[in-house]
Design brief:
about 40% helix, 15 helices, eight-stranded mixed beta sheet, alpha/beta, binds pyridoxal-5'-phosphate, disordered N terminus
Amino acid sequence: MGHSSETTSPRPVGRNVPELPIVLDRAAAASLTSQLAGQLRETMRAGVLSVGERLPSTRALARQLSVSRTVVTEAFQQLYAEGWLEGRHGSGTRVADLPDYAHAAPAPRSPRRRPLSAERPAPLGASAGEMVDLRPGAPWVKGYDEVAWRRAWRLAGEVAPTDRPDPYGMPRLREALAAHLRRTRAVPAAMGDVMVTSGTGNGLDLVAATLLRPGDRVGVEEPGYRTARHIFAARGAEIVPCPVDADGVIVEELPDDLVLLYTTPAHQYPVGGRLPISRRERLLAWARRTGAIVIEDDYDAEFRYDVTPLPALYGLDPAGVVLLGTLSKSLAPDVGVGWVLAAPELLDGLAATRKRLADKTPGPVQAAVAVLLERGDLARHLRRMRLEYARRRAVIVDILGDRVRGDTAGLHVLVELPAAAVRPLVAAAWERGVMLDSTERHHHGPLRVHGLVLGYGSATVNEVRKGCEVVAKLLADR
Ligand SMILES: Cc1ncc(COP(=O)(O)O)c(C=O)c1O
């Protein structure tokens, strides 16, 4: 990085903190935050800052570099998310004990080998330290019944391995899933309608690989589930953002030339709306008129509070809707089991795709899940988790009041904010030990919905309370 009259001038930072060899260039194309994150990464990689060593406070570093504290906070946040830093800022941010590869010099980049995604996954072993994590996505995995879990695996061990995995899944599990869905989602499902998958992502990819041709236009809710966008785009689709309001996708704004529409009617991700019956009917009428297939992602539909469940869209039109479900929210993402319900010809197409791509869900996992379903263990787990999540959600509503939207179902809520307030609030909360997510990354195009997406799946009731109190205080101080 070249020095210029526009570089920031280092100033002493105090006695007990390392003075870091960092020079920021205000004239450079890269933002000050990404320059700072990059240089901090290099100091850690080079061992100038070693494992366990404490970093200067954001205030001290901002003063040293003559930049705003937000620049430093956002750089720390980034490195925290990548796993380079740990501990809670304020009581001390330290260099994390990273796996060896993170400390090694970066491998030379070959353009032919560059990954398609610019996002870097957090290194394994990254620790959340003392931070309260209110980002959405993860369920409460610690609530499982250990006895039932071990029994399921013991009984799965009695099932002999097979030399020809069934692309539709293990019949016994398909039967158990159909019964589960009839009970919990009022879906008229028989075993023949169900295919076992490795989760929603796998189901989406199979549908995309089976139905899409390059350039096909696929509608995805806006804001919406970005993994769905990534999967369709990876299969050559043109992504068409389809706006949602507080109730869900706006049917009148859907174009007529979509091949598929991805939607989350039970609990819109991330705004939280529950698609009303009248809109469901209009949506299905639109699909019948245009010939589009509706993909219904039922990811967290088992969890609802104070409202009667609305039956899945699929039940209203099994020929025009593909229903995707998963155990990722109701049990744990690493179980890796989900399901697809679709019309018979499409299910056959998906099975053919599976064979073509050598894709499968491991048999022993399917057998263990079948046991959990057959013995009622999953139903009991869901009842317990519903109560557990209801307590956390009540805490959020209690503290944040009528700012909260989308709280009738699922494991996250939306707190709408003025656009300019979002980033500073996320940064200030992080300073106080609370990790928040905003609506930003859920958009494909320009931001339409501004606010926080608060996830309460993986935090304890006390953590949820603490996190929400921090948010409430920051909102009050605005
Ligand atoms: C909208 C949505 N759908 C589905 C899933 C689960 O996907 P998978 O079953 O691939 O783990 C998630 C997980 O975060 C999600 O947010």
